[in-house]
């Protein structure tokens, strides 16, 4: 896929088609006082890009397609597996206090909780703050008591697009979601193993990368 | 600006140029068993997009420009003023406890602090959590005591691009930055009035909007 900065003449052609559709290539050339063959590459570009549509024996139409279509296509192609970051995980038996220390040491906004290596919960900075001012004994209370518990956890998978993951973060109003792979344990039951994390920081960093790209 | 999905023939042309640069249009046509004039629109598209470069009497070169250039251009065009969200502000004399309540009521990750209506500080969820477990009397201590104070605050302005703002957020490892306008007070001194906020949530939401755009 490529991107093209339209020339002034191409912009003029679009305007002419917008106002006069359907209009033949010959008629466009007349208005611009140019030959039909001079316009051929311009019309090829405008139809290939989908901005104009050409129907045989009728002429050119304006489709209304805009430049932003491309951004969307690029974002949709990036997979969660390509941009996921390292998840910070504690066991369900860890104290709230120790988990907060881990949160600060790792400088993350959420911590994922496991039992026997499988995802059982998520705790955000907001959850910690709520409980820190709530009078709980942070040293004695295990994190399992305050965490958001499965199956109420939004997750993403490596093969999903980063757009899907970002939509989950926005729709569910969370700061980050775990990237998981499903592991069958027995009797057809399955659990999630945590293999990464997608956060608002991941998305913001990706946004900067895409924006800086030359 | 427009976006074009390259045809198979155009992809082939790029490959031929990559391997044989510089190569004339005539030579490319021969390899594809096509006439020079059949290739003219393809070569026009590939040079206009900047993927190929044409030098008279020498031939075509491959420039190495990629599809992502366009995403970057789009992101660079969006101004902070177009996407900023509502800032949550408390006065420097407010207690830490009241500020935490505001943080929860408004569901934001950072609070901006003012004195006489001008920006004096920023407090994040992380700052609140650190002090909540630190043994301070949250009801009696004013937020001014724990805030990050001017001039150590990263700000953005309405006319800056959203890419600039996102880079500041990533580089300074903060969740959000205030959008300010500079107000001259007297003797050439100036202060910042807070008129908005750009956060990782703003960026993630914009990312989703750009990605969903059709």
TrEMBL record, chains A, B:
<dbReference type="Pfam" id="PF08279">
    <property type="entry name" value="HTH_11"/>
</dbReference>
<keyword id="KW-0129">CBS domain</keyword>
<dbReference type="InterPro" id="IPR036388">
    <property type="entry name" value="WH-like_DNA-bd_sf"/>
</dbReference>
<dbReference type="InterPro" id="IPR013196">
    <property type="entry name" value="HTH_11"/>
</dbReference>
<protein>
    <submittedName>
        <fullName>CBS domain-containing protein</fullName>
    </submittedName>
</protein>
<dbReference type="InterPro" id="IPR051257">
    <property type="entry name" value="Diverse_CBS-Domain"/>
</dbReference>
<dbReference type="Pfam" id="PF00571">
    <property type="entry name" value="CBS"/>
</dbReference>
<dbReference type="InterPro" id="IPR046342">
    <property type="entry name" value="CBS_dom_sf"/>
</dbReference>
<dbReference type="InterPro" id="IPR036390">
    <property type="entry name" value="WH_DNA-bd_sf"/>
</dbReference>
<feature type="domain" description="CBS">
    <location>
        <begin position="147"/>
        <end position="214"/>
    </location>
</feature>
<dbReference type="InterPro" id="IPR000644">
    <property type="entry name" value="CBS_dom"/>
</dbReference>
<dbReference type="InterPro" id="IPR016842">
    <property type="entry name" value="UCP026546_HTH-CBS"/>
</dbReference>
